Amino acid sequence: RELRRRIIPGRFAPGSVMVTSHIAESLGTSVTPVRDALHQLVGEGLIAAHGGGGFVVPAFDREKMGHLYRWHGEVMGVVLRNVDCPQDIGDFPQGAGGPLSGQDIAAVATTLFRRLASLSTNPEHAAVIDILSARLHLARCHEHVLGR
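Below the sequence we write its predicted structure tokens.
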């Protein structure tokens, strides 16, 4: 969980190599649980396995990001077809009247999609949206730089 909390908001920049010994030291643990957690995050698509047994935060690739955004949209289409009864999905963070920062946009998008998925009759939809939201969070924070 701690590694996920560090990766999603961008404490590890895209393209950066994740050194297991440094991460373990910063978390006050041994390398083995860090390596296990990193393998789990590879499975979730948050990081990539690097040649030689290392790990890296994936760099932004316009084509891959386009596929990921389209997949997210397709999943949301399935979610919305499985909402029985529209409900109040609550309040969202408000900006200070000006443009939202990348972090604000990412947080609002994540909150919106998670709340919509929670209305689905299938709880698996919320689990998939959580994974996709985590993978897209960093991209949403930097969309203005990526040129959507």
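The beta strands are 17-18, 48-50, 54-56.
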